[in-house]
Amino acid sequence: MISQYLGKGGMIIFEAFSKSHLDYVLKNEKVGGPKDLGSLFSIEEIKEDFPDYDFLVLEETEIELNEGLFHNGTGSVIRCVAQKR
Predict the structure, then answer these.
(1) Per-residue pLDDT of the chain (85 residues; tens, 9 = 90+)
(2) Domains of the chain (ranges plus CATH)?
């Protein structure tokens, strides 16, 4: 896990498709992203995966993708910025 490489005060920053993104894929396949639930994230899972972190940002939000042929349309992501305690 990434935590073994971070010291106290180390930061993780990422954006990933949320589990609710599947609803967006059903409406518009061109939005892209994983189509299986196991490859998507929830806020609860992220909290469980990073118990020794303080979350500065942890939110699920709707975004508009315009990234080439395979990521176009409205989708749902989770944004995370966390600092190791």
Answers:
(1) 788 999 999 999 999 999 999 999 999 999 999 999 999 999 999 999 999 999 999 999 999 999 988 899 999 999 999 999 9
(2) 2-84 (3.40.50.150)
